[in-house]
Records
---
Amino acid sequence: MKIAIFGAGVAGLSAAIELVDRGHTVEIYEKRKVLGGKVSVWKDSEGDSIESGLHIVFGGYEQLQQYLKRVGAEDNYQWKEHTLIYAEPNGQQSFFKKANLPSPWAEVIGGLQTDFLTMWDKISLIKGLYPALTGNEAYFRSQDHMTYSEWHRLRGASEHSLQKLWRAIALAMNFIEPNIISARPMITIFKYFGTNYTATKFAFFRKNPGDSMIEPMRQYIQSKGGRIFVDAKLNRFELNSDESIKGALLQDGHKIEADAYISALPVHNIKTIIPREWLAHKYFRNLHEFVGSPVANCQLWFDRKITDTDNLMFSQGTIFATFADVSITCPDDFQNGSGTANGGSVMSLVLAPAHQLMEMPNEVIIELVMKDIHDRFPLSRQAILLKSTLVKIPQSVYKAVPDVDKFRPDQISPVKNFFLAGDYTDQHYLASMEGAALSGKLVAEKLLSRFGN
Ligand SMILES: Cc1cc2nc3c(=O)[nH]c(=O)nc-3n(C[C@H](O)[C@H](O)[C@H](O)COP(=O)(O)OP(=O)(O)OC[C@H]3O[C@@H](n4cnc5c(N)ncnc54)[C@H](O)[C@@H]3O)c2cc1C
C-alpha cells in the first residue's frame, strides 16, 4: 500500500516507523524545513541548538521508548535522580524525594519527609488524594467535568499544597493553571505518581530531542525506503463522489495520490483543512472543540555556571514553570565549544501560563525572565548573559479543560481512506510525546486492519 502522512512530529514519524516496518510505501509531507513539530530543534546562525521546548522522557513512556530502541536511540537519553526539585527565592531549593521503597511507600514516606509542605498539607493530601490513588480509568473519566482546583477543594486537600505543589505540575503538563485544567489528567498523574515508582522517573536527551530522537527516527524511516519531503505544506483534499480522498494538494501545487492518507497535523491545523462536506459528520465537527495552549520556551546562555542541579526544576510565582540547566542535564550539547556555550550555564525554561506573553515584545519577556532568574539563582547576579532566545508557540498542545476529553477522536475517521494521528487523538495519555507515539502506533494498526492487511 502507498500511504501519505502529513506532519512530521512524533505522531507522524511513529506512524511511518510502523508502516515501513510492515513493508508499505510511505511518504511524509512536512510543512516546515525541520522535522519534529513541537519537539523540533534547529541550529541558529551561531551554531546553537534552539529547542521548541524543553522535553523530558518519563519512565511510563513505554511506546516512545520502544520506538527509541527500534531506531537505535535507546542510549540517547539519561535518567536523573527521582526527585521533584522546586527552586525557591534566594537560591534555596525544596524537594519532594521519593523514598527508596516500593510504591506507594516510596511516595508516602517521601511525601512525609518533604520540608516545603506543612503537616496539615501532608495529612490533607493523603486523605484527599486517596480516591485518585485507588481510582481506575472509569473514575478518572467521571471527574472530567470539573477543574482540578474544584476537585482538590472538594476533597478537602489544603490550599497551600494546591499552590505549592500541584500548580507547578498543571503548568508543566498542559501550560495552564489548576483552576483551568480538568481534574482528570491531574488525578491520572497522581495515580502514576503514587503507585508506580518507575513511571514517574524522568530522563533528559543526551543532546537535545532533535538530534537524540527525531534524527534517528528520520534515518530509520529513510533506511527502510520511506520518503520525507520538507517545505511541503498540505493545503486541501480533492474528493471522490463518495467523499473519500482522491488526492491531496500541497501549497506549491503538487498533487499527491495514495491508497490512504494520515493527518498527523496538530488539531488546530487539520480543522482548517477538513473539507466542508465532511463537516456533516460529528466526528469532524468535534475537532472544533479543541483550543491550543500558548507556551514559550526561553534559552539563556551565561558566562559561568549559575546552578549545579543536574535535573528538571520547578518553581512557583515565576514567569517560568519548569526548566533545567541543559549544559548539565544534556552532556552532549550546550558544552564549551558548541555554539555560544563557553562552559557556563545554558538555561532552557518553559514559560507558562503564556497567554499574556504572545504579543509582548521579546526584550520585555527576557527582562522578566532575568528578574526571576536573579531571584532564584543568586550566582546569576554576577554572571554575564551571553545570549537569549525565545520561541513562542501560540497554539501548542490542546488545553485539557473540563469536558473536552470526550471529543478526542478515534484514529479511524468516517472517511474510508482518511485517518488521524496526533497527541490529541484518543489514547490513554494526555498530549505528550508518549501520546503522539501511541497515536502513531494506533493509526497504523487501525489503517491496516481497515484495509485488511
Ligand atoms: C514547550 C513544550 C514543552 C513540552 N514538554 C514536553 C515534555 O517534557 N514531555 C512530553 O512528553 N511532551 C512535551 N511536550 C508536548 C509534546 O511536544 C507534544 O505533545 C508532541 O510533540 C506532539 O506531537 P504531534 O506529532 O502530535 O504534533 P506536532 O509535534 O505538533 O507535529 C505536527 C507536525 O505537523 C506539521 N504541520 C502542520 N500543518 C501542516 C500542514 N498543513 N502540512 C504539513 N505539515 C504540517 C507541523 O509543522 C508539525 O511538524 C511539550 C510541548 C511544548 C510545546
---
Amino acid sequence: MASVTVKSFVGLHQTSLENYNRRHSVTGLSKCVVPSQLKYRRLNVVAAKSNPKIAGRNLRVAVVGGGPAGGAAAETLAKGGIETFLIERKMDNAKPCGGAIPLCMVAEFDLPLDIIDRRVTKLKVISPSNVSVDVHKTLKPHEYVGMVRREVLDGYLRERAVASGATIINGLFTKMDKPQEKNGTYVLHYNAFNGESVSAGERMSIEVDAVIGADGANSRVAKSIDAGDYEYLIAFQERIKLPDDKMQYYENLAEMYTGDDVSPDFYGWVFPKCDHVAVGTGTIGHKPDIKKFQDATRLRARDKILGGKIMRVEAHPIPQHPRPRRVVDRVALIGDAAGYVTKGSGEGIYFAAKSGRMCAEAIVEGSDYGRRMVDEGDMRSYLKKWDKAYGPTFKVMNILERLFYRSNPAREALVELFGNEYVQKMTFDSYMYKKVVHGNPLEDLKLAVNTIGSLVRANALSKMAN
Ligand SMILES: Cc1cc2nc3c(=O)[nH]c(=O)nc-3n(C[C@H](O)[C@H](O)[C@H](O)COP(=O)(O)OP(=O)(O)OC[C@H]3O[C@@H](n4cnc5c(N)ncnc54)[C@H](O)[C@@H]3O)c2cc1C
C-alpha cells in the first residue's frame, strides 16, 4: 500500500491565550494570539492515498457545537489546514456540569491555570450509613482534580480555535441536506444570531465537505444521520452560594454521597466552584424522582451547606454508552453526541475534548492537510483509535457500576474498599492520567480477595435486609 510521509503535523498544543484571566467571558474574539505565536508539537502522519484532490480551495468541515468536544476539534482542524466552521448556538453557554477535570487534561490541552477555579486535593466518599472515607491519601503534592466553570473552559477552547483560523458562527443548527452524489457537499441550515441569542435568528446555510457533530446529548446531527439512541441519566444540580466559613470547608474538598436516598443508580456530589458549590445527583432508572434525590443529597450535606443560597438550578441528560452509529459517510459524532461518558462516574469533559481532537486528526491525516476529499474510511479511522484507547476504560467502569451501585450494602462495600490505599492509588492514577495502571501482583491479589469478601458480605447483608 503506497503511503506518503508528510511533514510534521503542525498543531494540537499551544500556549495559553494571553490575558484570558482578565476577561473570562466569551464576548470578544479579537484579543486572541495569532497562530505564529503558538507553540506546536510535532506529529507524523501518513497522507491519504486515493481520494481526489480538491482544486482551488481546502477541505471544508463544519463542527456543530462549541463545547469541549467542538472547541478541541475545530482547533485541531484549523491548525491542520482545514477550512473550519464552528457553529455554536449560545456563546455564553454555561453547560450544566460538575466541572471536574483530570490532571492530564490540563497538560494535554495546555490549559492555563487561571481558568481552573479550584484544585481539589481532598475527596470524601460517603456511604449510605454516612461512613466517610478520605480517598486522597496517596495523592502526590502536585496532583489535584481541577474544577472549572464550563462557560470559562468552553469559551477559552473556542477562542483558541478561532486563534488557529476557525470561523465561528453564532447560530442554531437546524437541519442538514445530504450530498446527492459521491463527493458532493453537505448543506447545513442554521439560524444565525449575530450575538443576539434571544432573537429567532436569520435563516442561513453553509456548504461543507464533512461534518462533525459535537452538539451534545440532544444532538441534531446524530438525528440527521439516524445514529440511533442511547440510554441516558438525568443529572440535576443546584449552584449554592455558601457563607464564607462554610465555603472554606470546601476550599479544596469534593464530596460524593452514595445511597438509595441520593440515587438508586448513581451518586450525589458537592463540588467546589469559584465562589459557590455545585450540589447534584442523577438517575437512570428513576427520572421522575430526581427532585426527591436532590433533596436527599442536600439533606446529607445539610450541616456543611447551612445558610447557603441557591443561585441556579439546572438539569441535563448524560449518555450512558456510545450510539449504535458514530460515523456515517462523511459525518462523525464526538463527545456527548457520540455517547462518550463513563458509566458510574459521569465523566465526559476530557473524553469530549479528546475525541474532538482525535476525530479532527483523522480528517487532517485523511485529507493530507485539507488538500484531498475524505471518505467514510478516513472518518472511521478515528473510531478505531478511540475504541482501542478508551474502550477498556469504559468496559471497566460498566462492570464497577453493575457491581457496586445495585444496593446499599454493595455501596457500603465500595466505600470500605476505598479505605484501602492501594485502591485509592489505582483509582486516582487511572482517573488523573487516563492510562491503564499496572498494579503490583501481590496487592492485586489482596485486592481481589478483599473485593470478593466485601461483595459477599454485602450480598449477605442485602439478603438479610429483604
Ligand atoms: C449535571 C452534570 C454534571 C456533570 N459533571 C461532570 C464533571 O464533573 N466532570 C466531567 O468530566 N463531566 C461531567 N459531566 C458530563 C459533561 O458535562 C459532558 O460529558 C460534556 O459537557 C460533553 O461535552 P460536549 O462538548 O460533547 O457537549 P456539550 O458540553 O453538551 O456541548 C455541546 C455544545 O453544542 C451546542 N449546541 C447544541 N445543539 C446545538 C445546535 N443545534 N446548534 C448549535 N449549537 C448547538 C451547545 O450550546 C453546547 O455548547 C456532567 C454532566 C452533567 C449534566
---
Amino acid sequence: MKNEIRQAREAKEASKNKKGDMIAICSANGGIGRTVMSTNLAVALAKNDMRVCNIDGNFQFGDLCLSMDVRPTFTIKDTVEELDQMDEYTLANFLVSHSSGVKILASPERPEYAELVTTSVLEKVYKLLVNQFDYLIVDTEAGLQDLSLFFIEKSDEIFLLTTLDMVVMRNTKMMLETFDILGQKEKVRVLVNKSSVDSVIKTADVPGILETENIFHIPNQPQLVTQSMNVGVPFVSNHGKTDLAKAYFKIAEQLLSKREDVIVTEEKKPPSNSILQSIFQKGKAARSIF
Ligand SMILES: Nc1ncnc2c1ncn2[C@@H]1O[C@H](COP(=O)(O)OP(=O)(O)O)[C@@H](O)[C@H]1O
Ligand SMILES: [Mg+2]
C-alpha cells in the first residue's frame, strides 16, 4: 500500500515537470458546443488536481468568461503591449481565476481589438503557458481560421466536435479531410455532441460517414446545459451525477491516463547518450566491421 502511495506521488511530481498538453476544441460550424466543452472539461481536469488554463480563442466574440461567470480585468489584448518584456510571472497577472482553480486567458472585450492578436502574440503566450500548466484547453473559433490553425498545429490533441445534423456532418467530414492534408489527422478525436437527439443520421452511421473509428458520444441534456450556461456554473461542478457530467469526467479520465502513460514511457526511456558514449559506441561498431 505504501508503495502504491509513493508511486502515485512520484507520478504526480513527474507530471508537474512535464510540458503541458494543449487540447484544441474545434468544430466546423458555430453553436456545436465548443464553449460548453471547454469550460466543463477544464473544470473536470481541475477536479483531478491538474493545473488548467482555458484560452478563449474566439477573439472577436468570445464568451468563455461569461459562461464561467467571471469578469476579467485583463484580456489577451493587454498582453500585446507587454509582449517584449513579458515572462511567466507577468503573464500570470493577465489571467482570471475561476473558483474551480482553472485560470482563464480572456478574449478582448470588444471585437475591434481582435486584430491586435497575431500569431506572434500567440506564440509568446503559448511558450509561457505551456510550462506552467498541465493542460491548456483552447476554445477555438469555428472553422479553419488562421489563428485557430496556430492552436491546431501546436496542440497535442484536437477535439473535433460535431452533431448529427446533416450540414454539420458534411462540414465535419471536410474539416477532417483538411486536417489530413495538413498532416494533423493523427491528433484528431471526433466527439458527437447532443448524440441522443433524434436525427436522420444515427450514431451508428457516424464512423462510416466520417471514416473514423473511436468516436466519443456526449448526450443531449438541453435543460441542464442551458441552465448551467445562464447561471455561469459548469455542470461538472454542481451536477456531477448526471449522464452529461459523467461523460465529461470520462473524457478527463482518458486524457489523464494518456498523460500518465506518456510520463511513464518517458521515465523508462534510457538516458540519452553523452557525446563520449556515442563516440565509444561508434568505435565499437567500426571495430565489429573490421
Ligand atoms: N450536450 C449538450 N446537450 C444539450 N445542449 C447542448 C449540449 N452542449 C451544448 N449545448 C447547447 O448548444 C448551444 C451551443 O453551445 P456552445 O458551447 O455555445 O457552442 P459553440 O461554442 O460551439 O458555439 C448552447 O445553446 C448550448 O446550451
Ligand atoms: Mg462558443
---
Amino acid sequence: MSTEPHRGPAILTELSPADFRARLPELLAVYVAAMRYPRGTEYHRAPMWSEHSARSGWQAFAASLPEDPDTVVGVAYGYRGDSRQWWNQQVRTGMRHSGRSPEAIDRILADYFELTELHVRPDMQGRGIGELLLHALLRDRTEAAVLLSTPEVAGEDNRAWRLYRRFGFQDIVRRFVFTGDARPFAVLGRRLPLEPDLLPHSPGTNDDPDGSGAP
Ligand SMILES: CC(C)(COP(=O)(O)OP(=O)(O)OC[C@H]1O[C@@H](n2cnc3c(N)ncnc32)[C@H](O)[C@@H]1OP(=O)(O)O)[C@@H](O)C(=O)NCCC(=O)NCCS
C-alpha cells in the first residue's frame, strides 16, 4: 500500500450559511485539531461561528479530497469588517497604540474583508490546501483590503506565517494582546484585489509592486 501523502488538488466547496451551520460540528473539528485546542473548545465556538455566518459579506469554503469528498479537511471563512464589530474595535485600539494616525486608521478600517478563520487538518497540512482556500476566499472580494490576526510565532516560523507572507500580507500591528487572550497576536493585511498572477503554487509573487506597503 502506498504511504505517499495526497498531492492532487483538493475540492473546494463554497458553503451557504445554512450549509455552514448544518456542518458546524465537522468544521469545528478541523479548527480544534488544526489549532491543537483542547477538546470541547468547539462547543464554546459554535455559537460565535454561527452568528458570524449571518454577517454582511460572509463567505466560506470547505476543502475535501477527491477520493473522499464528504470529509472536510479544511475550512476558511470571513466577512466584511464593520466598526460595530469587536475585532474591528480591538484592532483600532492596537493601531492607535502603535502610533498610526487617525486618518490612516480610518482609511484602513473603512473598507476591508476580515479573514476570520483558515484551518487545515494537521495530517493534510503542507499540501497547498490552505493556499487554495485562501485564494478562493479572496479572489472575488470587492473590499479594498483584507485583514487578519494570527498568533505571534518566533521567527514567523510556521505554515500560517509563510502562507500569509507568500500572499503579500504586511504588518498592521505586531504583538497585540486582544482583550481576554494573553497571547500576543499580529494583525496583518494586504490590499485587494489579488494580483492576477497570485495563483496557487506560483512562486515568488508576494512582492509589493509599488513599494507602498500594506493597505
Ligand atoms: C495555516 C494553514 C491553514 C495553512 O494550510 P496548509 O495547507 O498547511 O498550507 P499551505 O497551503 O501553505 O501549504 C503549502 C506548503 O506545503 C508545501 N507544498 C507541498 N506540496 C505542495 C503543493 N502541491 N502545492 C503547494 N504547496 C505544496 C509548500 O511548500 C508549503 O510549505 P511551507 O508551509 O513549508 O512553506 C494550516 O497549516 C493550519 O491549519 N495551521 C494551523 C492553524 C492555523 O495556524 N491557522 C491560521 C490561524 S490564523
